[in-house]
C-alpha cells in the first residue's frame, strides 16, 4: 500500500518533533554535564581542604 501525501506529511512532522526533542534533550545533557564538571571541581577543592585540615590535626595530635 502506498502512503498518501498526507501520510508522508504527518510522518515528516513526527520525525521533526522527535528531532526537536532530541536536540532539547542533548542541550539538557550538555548543561548537566557542565554542572557535573563544576561540582567535580568544587569537590576536588573541598577534598584538598580536608586533606590539609587532616594533616594539621595529625600534627596537633602529635604535640598533645
UniProtKB/TrEMBL annotation:
Keywords: Coiled coil. Residues 5-63 form a coiled coil. This is Uncharacterized protein. It comes from viral metagenome.
